[in-house]
Amino acid sequence: MGMDTTMVIFWAACFVVFVIVEIATLNALVSIWFAIGSLGAMFFAIADLSFVWQMVMFVGLSAVILLATRPLVKKMQGRRYATNFELDIGKTALVIETINNTLSQGRVKLDGTDWAARSEDGSPIEEGAVVVVKMVDGAKLIVAKQPQ
Q1: pLDDT at position 95
Q2: What is the 3-state secondary structure (H, E, C) of 60-110?
């Protein structure tokens, strides 16, 4: 009885699909276990073991890899890193164009970078005023007048 190339191709295709899904999800670790399980099942198909044994290998290896890496995955998912915009909250900026939310106008200079800005409470803030960054909304800073 010769090797069933259909099953070898099937498991190789599963491996490729799971790897593509893993790459597409950008570090989310959603399918790497199944990719490794597919690889194991493919080797069982090459060894001409029955489909039942191939499935046992696929499910078993996927589960073992999942359980072995779960603590690492949990630790990675629990971490939160401050992105650049989060680091800007609380900093002071200089108003370089009067902020008027009604007219959707206003710009500030923060660390040498020119940003669109809106006032937190909706009140206008004159050019030359010093403001505090309260929030980042896309490419806009939400600011408040610095207390005197």
Answers
A1: 95
A2: HHHHHHHHHHHHHHHHHHHCCCCCHHHHHCCCEEEEEEEEECCCCEEEEEE
Residue 84 pLDDT: 59
CATH number of the domain that residue 120 is part of: 2.40.50.140
Check residue 48 and give left, alpha or beta (phi > 0: left; psi -120 to 50: alpha).
left
DSSP, res 26: S
* H or E element at residue 134: strand 130-137
* Torsion sign, CA atoms 88, 84, 137, 75: negative
Mean pLDDT of 27-54: 91
Taking the CA atoms of residue 30, residue 32, residue 34 and residue 39 in that order, the dihedral angle to the nearest 10 degrees is 170
For the cut 70, the answer to whether the pLDDT of residue 106 exceeds it is yes
For the whole prediction, is pTM greater than 0.70?
Answer: no
Q: Which two tokens stand for residue 17?
A: 């699909």
Number of domains in the chain: 2
Residues 67 and 94 in one domain: no
Same-domain status, 136 and 112: yes
**3-class state of residue 118 by DSSP:** strand
